[in-house]
Specification:
Layout lengths: L11 H19 L1 H9 L1 H7 L10 H8 L6 H20 L1
Helix pairs in contact: 1-2, 2-3
Length: about 90
């Protein structure tokens, strides 16, 4: 199974979003319990964090993540990537 890459942008201010999303996906890949929680109750998963680490996300980012409805991590990551691409296109228009 492959997961979409979420590219990290070069500028320091724009790094934060992809890095936090990457941390979230990585936690879900390595820990089945966290993965199941992310897929069934993303709001709780985000608020609990993983292994003592919290996710530094804005309210909008949390809203975006909790709006994803997925049955697998692959689907979750795909929707996340597609949402970010749509947001980037809307911002540049």
């Amino acid at each position: 199974m492959s997961y979409p890459n979420i590219p990290v942008n070069a500028s320091r201010n724009s790094d934060r979003i992809p890095v936090e999303y990457s941390k979230l996906i990585t936690a879900a890949v390595v820990n089945e319990r966290f993965r199941k929680l992310l897929l069934t109750n993303p709001e709780l998963a985000l608020s609990m964090g993983y292994s003592g680490e919290s996710f530094d996300l804005s309210s909008e980012e949390k809203r975006e993540l909790t709006s994803i409805k997925a049955n697998s991590l692959e689907d979750f990551a795909s929707q996340l990537t597609n949402n970010k691409k749509k947001s980037a296109r809307a911002y540049t228009c």
